Amino acid sequence: MVTVIIIDDEIELINGIAEYLKLFNIDVVGTGHNGIEAVCLYEMYRPDYVLIDLNMPNYDGFYGISKIKEMDKNAKIIIMTGFMDKIKNEKLASELTVLEKPFRLNELKKIMCP
Q1: Helices 61-71 and 35-45 meet at what angle, rounded to 10?
Q2: Would you tell me which of 25, 49, 60, 87 could form a disulfide with 4, CB atoms 3.0–4.6 Å apart?
Q3: In this predicted model, what pLDDT tens digit does every residue of 25-74 receive, in sequence order?
Q4: Whether the predicted model's global pTM rises above the 0.85 cut
């Protein structure tokens, strides 16, 4: 079974994505709301995918991504963001999968269930 953690400060978005992924037997093993929680959840569960927002209060997605990549350079990270301009010049945009909010859930399914 495919596993994922979802990190976003929008609880409704997390819940909607989690419900959708369950339809395809993707197990949401943890959810968090900032970069520190992303790192803790990744370390605890080592999921197949990390689904993470960039713009969050306190420790943002950039923090979470960098720390997760330090732990596991092969971690599969999918960025969800409404701030594409913020990452266009970032190295992250070329190295990771990026979904611009709002995105269709079937786009996520195509990535996680090829």
Answers
A1: 30
A2: 49
A3: 999 999 999 999 999 999 999 999 999 999 998 899 989 999 999 999 99
A4: yes
Question: Of 58, 67, 59, 51, nearest to 101 (Cα)?
Answer: 51
Residue ranges covered by each domain of the chain: 2-112
> CA 46 → CA 15, 73, 83, 89, distances in Å?
21, 12, 27, 29
Going by C-alpha positions, the residue among 28, 43, 37 that lies closest to residue 60 is 37
CB 79 within 8 A of CB 98: yes
Is domain 2-112 given the CATH code 3.90.215.10 in the classification?
A: no
